[in-house]
Design brief:
The protein has 150 residues and is α+β, with helices and mostly antiparallel strands. The protein contains five helices and seven strands, in the order βαααβββαβαββ. The chain binds coenzyme A (COA).
Length: 150
């Protein structure tokens, strides 16, 4: 397998990143009307890519996952983490999360928090996160709030 690289995203990649997020969320089998309503919102935009720390995983030239870190806040927030379904389970999420942690350390941030999709919670726990509570998230449902000390 060619190496997977993680780099900062380019504004022109916003549409592809939006498609990856929609495909990744759909992977959990949510009702299509919920996915469609969410997909119609701007999940990621060129402006957000310029403003936030948005990073992409690539296999050769193909984008296969991405994340967004809001590092100006304390704690930093991992706002997005998405892997293309065909690549789920191959270590891409780990590489993306490690990149986010490295950025946090560089910026002097000591914690990352996120609202976890319940289906992804096992991933975050495996990566060393701890559940610190619950938040009402998209679709008005409670989801675990996860913290990493980095
Ligand atoms: C959650 C997600 C980002 C994980 O990325 P990934 O590339 O599949 O994860 P990795 O292959 O890097 O897995 C790293 C470790 O976590 C474990 N893991 C991964 N997903 C898991 C899950 N859903 N439940 C339990 N453990 C999981 C892996 O087995 C692996 O463990 P190992 O070290 O023993 O091998 C990816 O599944 C995804 O995009 N899912 C759909 C969208 C989503 O829910 N995003 C998160 C929103 S909060």
């Amino acid at each position: 397998m060619p190496p997977i690289t993680i780099t900062r995203a380019q504004p022109a990649e916003a549409t592809t990143l939006q498609q990856i997020a929609i495909a990744a969320k759909s992977h959990w089998g949510y009702p299509s009307h919920l996915i469609e309503a969410w997909a119609a919102t701007p999940i990621i935009t060129a402006a957000a890519i310029e403003r936030d720390v948005v990073f992409v995983a690539r296999s050769e030239t193909t984008l296969i996952g991405w994340g967004r870190l809001l590092v100006e806040q304390t704690p930093a927030v991992l706002e997005d983490l998405w892997v293309t379904p065909a690549w789920i389970g191959y270590g891409v999420g780990r590489l993306l999360l490690r990149y986010a942690i490295a950025i946090c350390r560089e910026r002097g941030s000591t914690q990352i928090e996120l609202d976890a999709d319940p289906n992804a919670l096992g991933f975050y726990l495996r990566m060393g996160g701890v559940v610190i509570g619950e938040r009402i998230s998209e679709w008005n449902r409670p989801v675990p709030r996860v913290r990493f000390n980095v």
